[in-house]
Write a structure and sequence with these properties.
This protein is an alpha/beta fold and about 350 residues long. It is about 40% helix and about 15% strand. The chain has a seven-stranded parallel sheet, with helices on both faces. Strands 7-10 form a two-stranded parallel ribbon. Helix 1 (about 10-25) links the parallel strand 1 and strand 2 (about 30).
């Protein structure tokens, strides 16, 4: 069986995807730079799990290194590439723009070149619901215009989609872009709301509630996200497979390129999320109400009709079950870490 390259393999989604592919018997090469955006010890702990499987091989490298990335592809010959490596976080992009240019634009350009020259059969690229920016139409559809990003992070993700389309058009490289919607679950990122709230509430500390709680998010459980990625991985788009327009969107391209929303299709309020965590932890949260942060948006809501039509994807994890799974993992992980 051919090897799948997963970039960002020590990250949250990359770890879970690699683990699923390995469980299916697929060899995986994982790439990550193990940067310090959040505690690298969590990334090392994820890697330790993956490295228990002999079908997994890890390479630590910077994908923004053009020569290094070229060598990676020359040595690999990967038929499938899932490019999840990126600098994440809307708020972090306000103060650290260069990190987003290097990780989300330069690195992607190098990966596209690697896929082009190695004749990769399918590149799956991690985009984000952030591309919808100040969009006021709900649910967010892949046919909506996304010309007004409100953060540099969002701008780099939209630029990434355009770069992928260009390579599909010019070089017949099949590319699929997945717009993720607020992913959460075990082994999640410490900068995300579910993790931050759980940690603060467990310590008896107040939680920061932005826009005074007037926010809704399409929280999507990690197993559902990985199922969505797996569903498209072996379905590379073909040139000329046009999806009908809704009449308001511009004509579709005939390039072997697709864009899908990958979300829960059921947004919940921030207050509902907090109440769900309170129930799972058995504690009451102390709320510190704050204004909206620059680059943030009041709501995300995924229209997943296109992904469902093409792959049969349907999210199946209720918020209460997903939060309970996260809290159980969090207690186990932090209990083990404290004992070391």
């Amino acid at each position: 069986m051919s090897t799948t390259l997963v970039t960002g393999a020590a990250g949250f989604i990359g770890f879970h995807l690699a683990r699923r592919l390995l469980a299916e018997g697929r060899p995986v090469v994982g790439v990550d730079n193990l940067n310090a955006y959040y505690d690298p010890a969590l990334k090392q702990a994820r890697l330790a799990v993956l490295q228990q499987d002999p079908k997994f091989r890890f390479i630590e490298m910077e994908l923004a290194d053009r020569d290094g990335c070229a060598a990676l592809f020359e040595a690999g010959g990967y038929e499938r590439v899932v490019h999840l490596a990126a600098q994440a976080g809307v708020r972090y992009s306000i103060d650290n723009p260069a990190a987003y240019v290097d990780a989300n634009l330069v690195a992607l350009g190098n990966v596209l070149e690697g896929c082009r020259h190695s004749r990769c059969e399918h590149l799956v690229f991690a985009s984000s619901s952030s591309v919808y920016g100040a969009n006021k139409k709900s649910p967010f559809s892949v046919d909506d215009r996304v010309d007004h990003p409100v953060s540099l992070y969002a701008a780099t993700k939209k630029a990434g989609e355009l770069m992928a389309h260009t390579y599909s058009h010019l070089y017949d490289l099949p590319t699929t872009c997945l717009r993720f919607f607020t992913v959460y679950g075990p082994w999640g990122r410490p900068d995300m709301a579910v993790y931050k709230f759980t940690q603060a509430m467990s310590a008896g500390e107040p939680i920061d509630v932005y826009n005074r709680g007037q926010m809704r998010r399409d929280f999507t459980y990690i197993d559902d996200v990985v199922g969505g990625i797996a569903g498209v991985l072996d379905l590379p788009p073909k040139r000329g497979e046009l999806r009908p327009s809704d009449g308001d969107s511009p004509p579709a391209s005939d390039a072997p390129h697709r864009v899908y929303n990958l979300g829960n299709n059921s947004p919940v309020s921030l207050e509902e999320l907090i109440a769900t965590i309170e129930a799972a932890l058995g504690v009451q949260a102390e709320r510190r109400l704050l204004p909206m942060q620059p680059g943030d948006v009041p709501e995300t809501y995924a229209d997943i009709d296109a992904l469902t039509a093409d792959t049969g994807f349907r999210p199946t994890t209720p918020l209460a079950d997903g939060v309970a799974s996260f809290v159980a993992w969090w207690r186990e992980h932090h209990g083990a870490a404290a004992a070391q």
